[in-house]
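Hi L.,

You mentioned the student needs an example of a multi-chain input paired with its predicted structure. This one should do, with 627 residues in total across all chains.
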Amino acid sequence: MHERNTISGAGWIGILALAVVLLAVPHLVSFSQQELLVFLTINVLLVVSYRLLTLTGEWSLAHVVMMGVGAYGSALYSKLFGFPVPLAMLAGAVTAGLIATVLSFPLFRMKGFYFLIGSFAAGEVIRLIWKRFTDPFGGPKGIQRIPGFPEIDLGFLRVDFYQPENYYYFVLAVVLVSLWVLYRIERSRIGLTFHAIHWQDKLSESVGIDTFGHRMLAFVVASFFAGVAGALYAHYLSTVNPNQFNVDTMVYVLIWTIVGGTSRWYGPILGVIALTIIDEVILRGIGADQWRPLLYGAILICAILFLPNGLESLVIRAGEALRGRSASAVTGAAGAEQE
Amino acid sequence: MSDFLLQTAFNASYAASYMALIAVGLVLIFGVMGVINFAHGELYMAGAYAVVFFYAGLGLPFIVAVAIGLVFVGCLGMLMELALFRPLRTNPLGGLIASIGFLLMLQTVAVLGFGLRNQNVPPVSQGRITVGGAFLTYERLYVILATVGLLLALWLFLRKSKFGWALRACAQDREAASLQGISINQTARYAMFIGAGLAGVAGALTAPLVAPTPYMGHTVIVTAFIIIIVGGIGSLEGAVLAAIIYAFVHTFVTTFFDGVIANIVGLLLMLAVLVVKPQGLFGVRERA
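Structure written out for the whole complex:
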């Protein structure tokens, strides 16, 4: 795995093209698609943070509930305690991280399937607490009328974040910063240790790596960013309820991640974007919303049977094929980045 | 008060029965295939819809509809084995994930075929047994009797028949069993038929009592997971005992507090077992 620390000329062109697409895309789609774009951007953060957790080899079923902790936390801090919304969002995400810290102690005594089921149980207990205790969580109806993100008024410039277009830019900025942080973590010594624990946890332990501590760290960081995603979500929808964070939503996160692939940072992003486009174009296009779970189920089965390394493996193979024709090596790298 | 306790005990016995059928099927599949079948709740749902279609819809006798449910869901299980679990045999997590895909597909088929609403299944019998102030309807009694009969038959089959030996051999050590000339594919196929069929029977028998919906498998699979974890993931006897314990705890907590608290208690029970004794309360080191 060789690493290029400098970005080539073609790489810059790719990044520039991507930036233009990201900035222009809300102007190219309908109003309802702008709303979808906001959710898609939030979901990108959700799946990329999920992938960080899977780096250590553990698959959690509590990730969406952690997103919910961020959403509920942020909603309550701003509504009940009158925190300014940006501060409430941060506090919500920190709460998700703290809850993850506490849950680490029972959960990381388990591995593999036991961790999967244990994390599900822990998440479900949290969700049922929201559902059962009307004060302060609002019971099954959840919390309504969550304050929105405050508008910015500079006299000459007024930005109203109730507009999906404006909120999209805000979400995009937050998500890009988060992705950069997550990327740096993976490329750091800590991230390499996550990989080591995944493949050789006994060996890692025997050379003095604190496997529990690193698993916990991955879980806490992933939950923090899931909490950020939840906070972004809550103040946009202005309502949260326990059903938004149930295991159905978690299944979709799993499908996005698995269909995209988890060995590269962009794998889950490919998955969530590809499936959202399929969803929007095919299902809403022909008005077959009821068929959604069938389609997702079929895609998931096909992916696990025929493309076990996800969509990213296609990109990797395409990149290698292009690089093979050595003359076009540079364009190959650029092509892989644009994907 | 004693009537009240007796009534709650009756309710718990009924819940324990059908949950035991479901959990034993799940454990059997795990034992032989090494796969946790997330679609097990939807197999239960498919069994209930077989009764909706053949008994409530076409007017066939209830017992015939239940038998059709068993065979139909058993065949669904064999289909899963053939299409999903066999190609993914080297990848247990893959089998689990594929079963999630299958679950979504079964749910959608039920929604498209029957709609989202609760299905109304006419009662099989209006009769009831009265003991003091407590009563047990015949419908619930049938579920309890059928469970006892089926589990007894399964136990005899696994212990006495040659095929049962083969099945248990596969559960203990697949390679060794294969070296002894036991066909892994055939054993897996039968295990899936029995495991899925038990879930189907549970769904078919309880259909008149629960008003089936396409999403009824949801609560059932969570309960089944709690039971197999508490009972020890590879142990059939453990699953039965855990089903009884869980059903009594859940029914009593529901009666004295409410359903959501009972669910929380159940999940915490599972977490406690996972933390303290991951092999389960009745777990044995070797599987099934």
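You could point out the following to them. Residues 246-339 of chain A form one domain. The mean pLDDT of chain A is 85.

Best wishes,
N.
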